[in-house]
Amino acid sequence: xxxxxxxxxxxxxxxxxxxxxxxxxxxxxxxxxxxxxxxxxxxxxxxxxxxxxxxxxxxxxxxxxxxxxxxxxxxxxxxxxxxxxxxxxxxxxxxxxxxxxxxxxxxxxxxxxxxxxxxxxxxxxxxxxxxxxxxxxxxxxxxxxxxxxxxxxxxxxxxxxxxxxxxxxxxxxxxxxxxxxxxxxxxxxxxxxxxxxxxxxxxxxxxxxxxxxxxxxxxxxxxxxxxxxxxxxxxxxxxxxxxxxxxxxxxxxxxxxxxxxxxxxxxxxxxxxxxxxxxxxxxxxxxxxxxxxxxxxxxxxxxxxxxxxxxxxxxxxxxxxxxxxxxxxxxxxxxxxxxxxxxxxxxxxxxxxxxxxxxxxxxxxxxxxxxxxxxx
Length: 376
Fold this sequence. Notes:
By secondary structure, the protein is an alpha/beta fold. It has 13 helices and eight strands. The chain has helices spanning 25-37, 48-55, 61-72, 76-86, 89-113, 121-138, 142-150, 164-172, 216-229, 291-300, 312-333, 342-356, 362-369; strands at 2-5, 16-19, 152-158, 190-196, 199-205, 233-239, 258-263, 280-282. Helix 3 (61-72) runs antiparallel to helix 4, helix 5 (89-113) packs antiparallel against helix 6 (121-138) and helix 11 (312-333) packs antiparallel against helix 12. The longest helix has 25 residues, at 89-113.
């Protein structure tokens, strides 16, 4: 079956057609050979369809990059973040800031020509202040953006037989890791992805941390240390009967954030238990007690909402524009006249226009679309 998509309503804005056939690779190859034999078509380059959509003004460059991000997203949060850019909301906000800044520049330039027009430094500062705040708002949460897009790297660590694998299984909801009364049963790292309240956590169940002389357990401990250093969140499991030992403190600061899990509370008297905090949660992995509280504490680390900026090019250009506006404001406050800072303001506009693709050169376009897969 062939479906015709006439311009300008097609994805690319050009006349195009989709051919639907059986998915057998042999059938597909024969069909492509027939099409190629006409010498009227060729294989698309990487990202060529989306690039044509951009060049034909069907979408801007922000939205074009969001298409690639949507395809590459490996978790629910990533698809939502990409979708929020694809719907054009970020583009509208960036263009609104650019238009407002262009208006400020126009007033400065008019004041050069019209000597009777009084444009003082205070009015420019008043105009720039909300624009800086708007860019800061767009960049909010940027420090966790990449992690949310890819999934939160979460390492379960602790001494042998603290209940790490039991916690791992309790969070997953099924017996993924071996649980045994004998310590040191986990030798290699087991990974699983779990979505909690719309946020993807990539869990790593690791070998118990202890000094070992040799053998596979030592290799497992070394891998555990590597994972701790690369973790966004560390769930450090402690046998609540023994408490956190002094020599364990050295492991607590290796990850970006550590939550201490006091496990095996089913073996404690209630008088020996303490309340839950953002840094410490009391659970019984064996009986699934406190798991909901733990996952709640984990998601609260990212409760400010999904960030809008997670693609490095976007963060760089928005940050550059904000820095230029701050620099212009500081220059005015230090006594420079508004005409002296117009160069910074023009550079800020250029960065914003480059962001949506108004000022993008061929090298930038090639870099962006070459990261797409063929067919997109």
